[in-house]
Amino acid sequence: MTTPVTIIGAGLGGLTLARVLHVHGVPATIYEADASPTARAQGGMLDIHDYNGRLAVEAAGLMDGFRAIVLDGRQAMRFLAPDGTLLFEKTDDGTGGRPEVQRGDLRRLLIDSLPAGTVRWGRRVDAVGTLGDGRHEVRFADGSTVVTGLLVGADGAWSKVRPLLTGALPEYAGEAFVETYLYDASVRHPEQAALVGAGTMFAPADGAAITAHRESGDTLHAYVALTRPLDWFDTVDFTDRAAATARIAREFDGWAPQLTALITACDSPPVLRPHHTLPLGLRWDRVPGVTLVGDAAHLVPPNGEGANLAMLDGAELGRAVAAHPGDAETALSEYEAAMFPRTAEVPQGEDLMASLFGDNPPDAVRAFVAEQGEVR
Predict the structure, then answer these.
(1) Which of 120, 132, 181, 264 is 20 to 30 Å from 328 by CA-CA measure?
(2) Where in the chain do CATH 3.30.9.30 domains reside?
(3) Please, are residues 26 and 169 in contact by the beta-carbon 8 Å criterion?
(4) Which residues lie below 8 Å from residue 285, measured CB to CB, with a gap of 6+?
(5) Is the pTM of this model over 0.85?
(6) What is the band of 191 on the pLDDT scale with cuts at 50, 70, 90?
């Protein structure tokens, strides 16, 4: 069996691609390793930016559904020093360009917008091979295979499709998150709830940071960032919640107790999330019949852009395929020509502050970031 458009991976990029193709009358099939849409947790909140992620939602024709899942007030922002001093605060007046949604809600919106059977669940890819003439064979763990007319790897950091295009492999980026959750925060953790506020709280320092979001259901979701060698985390026993949280908290000695309580008072086991990256500006020569979207193409450590870029990749590729019926190579060439430069730069330093605060970051924040090396 040869399928016209075969997408590996039912993340946001692959689902957006399938939806935009559907809008334009182009059939597609997604193969996903997870057994069902609810087989695993889908992460926390996403801020969907008006200059990339929102454009993808519009291309998918899902703005009404998107507005219905936006969490009001979550664009509020607080910036704290490690001693708990408030450096900057911004409320959410509803006019910002980064509305927040739960990743799981956005994924469900996309899944529900597709014809029944578009996503084939429980289909883990073992290998992909080239057959020539732009066709590829995908072999699954259950022994079945499909032959593709156009193959898209939307299968994330450890993509099985990427080796068809490049030998580049993800490398550890030198930093990891340890994720924690505090539930029923306003009642059970009122001090931390007040500290985080209505939206997102940042408390950075040199080599360490604590960020927390107020998610739906009065949940605080914290991302504890540590710049350490990967083998340093091997010394932490993440199977022992008390020991793990105590060990991670020791890296924040001298910080305000109300901040470190986002680690020590967590209501779920801490989860380690090492950050990996592909070479920035990765490109490949055109290979007939195959391309990549999202982290499979341009993996970088979390910077607020990953999900947005993955969705825009899917939308742009879908529109290119629809614009060139029967001419996949022109579509893929146009898509890659736009995607490569769009994903070649990662906001950092002044650019990152500008993306968060606009063209004039608050003086207190600017000074604090400049002095991070002296904080710990």
Answers:
(1) 120
(2) 171-277
(3) no
(4) none
(5) yes
(6) very high
Pick the CATH number of 2-75+100-169+279-342 from 3.50.50.60, 3.30.70.260, 1.10.10.10, 3.40.50.1440: 3.50.50.60
- Say if residue 47 carries a ligand binding annotation: yes
72 labeled part of a ligand binding site: no
d(CA 105, CA 37): 11
Residue ranges of the chain assigned to CATH 3.50.50.60: 2-75+100-169+279-342
Q: Which residues are CB-contacts of 90 (< 8 A; sequence separation ≥ 6)?
A: 76, 77, 78, 357
> SS3 of 93, please?
coil
Q: Give the other-Cβ count within 10 Å of 130's Cβ.
A: 15
The CA-based angle 223-224-230, given to 5 degrees, is 115
Give CA 147 to chain center in angstroms.
29
Handedness of CA 295, 298, 301, 303 (dihedral sign): negative
What percent of the chain shows pLDDT beyond 90? 84
50-91 pLDDT per residue, tens: 999 999 999 999 999 999 999 999 999 999 999 999 999 999
Binding residue per annotation — 206?
no
Q: 171-277: which CATH topology?
A: D-Amino Acid Oxidase; Chain A, domain 2 (3.30.9)
- Residue 365 is predicted with a pLDDT of 64
